[in-house]
Amino acid sequence: MFPELENKSYFVHPSSFVDASAEIGEGTKVWHFCHIMGGAKIGKRCSFGQNVFVANGVEIGNDVKVQNNVSIYEGVKCEDFVFIGPSVVFTNVFNPRSAVARKDQYRHTLLGKGVSIGANATLVCGIELGKFAFVGAGAVVTKSFGDYALVYGNPAIQKGWMSEYGHPLTFDLHNRAICLESGEIYLKTEKDIVTKENG
């Protein structure tokens, strides 16, 4: 452990670098070969796997899990309980050119509470994913999706809905679906907006 990281309420592996002005919450663990830049704000009980980069201006909520080989660039915000699978790719410039400076044109990306992003998915900047949306492995997400959306493909399209426990939801003629694991009931409106009953 580096001397400047002793007596902290979070863990940082000695091979990693955390810039002095980064904000990291209690119980968070930063594993091998990571770099957390100074302007990053990270909540409590998060986990960052091997070789993760978190840029200035990134905001990460509580209980977020980031798997190996992920770079989270400026403009990304993750709410609580987000899961980011290994080798997920984020961007923050829509039309990059090496010869053209566009740092003032970063587009924001928002991952709502409980969102899961599968391994090797790519998220093009400027999108929002609603709470508990589920992105399949290898998807290329080029637009926003709502709460509980199940999306995959290239480009990603919505294929259905997922419960908060991560199970596909099948709606009956009354637009009700039951999570196979939790037994919780979900409702779908005529405009295909899904909510959880009593909450």
Primary descriptors:
199 residues, mainly beta, UDP N-Acetylglucosamine Acyltransferase, domain 1, 9-stranded mixed sheet, 32% strand, globular, disordered N terminus
Outline:
This protein has 199 residues and is an all-beta fold. It is 0% helix and 32% strand. The chain has a single domain, classed as Hexapeptide repeat proteins (UDP N-Acetylglucosamine Acyltransferase, domain 1), CATH 2.160.10.
The helix content, as a percent range, equals under 10%
CATH architecture identity: 3 Solenoid
CATH topology (level 3) name:
UDP N-Acetylglucosamine Acyltransferase, domain 1
User: What would you give as the CATH superfamily?
Assistant: Hexapeptide repeat proteins
Task: Note the overall shape.
Answer: globular
Instruction: Tell me the series of helices and strands, N- to C-terminal.
Output: EEEEEEEEEEEEEEEEEEEEEEEEE
Computed over alpha carbons, the radius of gyration is: 18 Å
Helix count from the secondary structure assignment: 0
Largest sheet: 9 strands, mixed
Could you tell me the mean pLDDT?
Answer: 95
Distance separating the two termini: 43 Å
Oligomer: single chain
Count up the domains: 1
Ranges where pLDDT stays below 50 over 5 or more residues in a row are 1-5
Share of residues in strands: 25-35%
Q: Could you name the CATH class?
A: Mainly Beta
Work out the number of β strands: 25
Write out the strand line-up for the largest beta sheet, numbering strands in chain order: 1-4-7-10-13-16-19-21-22
Describe the overall structure:
This protein has 199 residues and is an all-beta fold. 0% of the residues lie in helices and 32% in strands. The strands form five sheets. A nine-stranded mixed β-sheet has the order 1-4-7-10-13-16-19-21-22, with no helix packed on it. The chain is globular and about 55 Å long. The N and C termini lie far apart (43 Å). Residues 1-5 have low confidence and may be disordered.
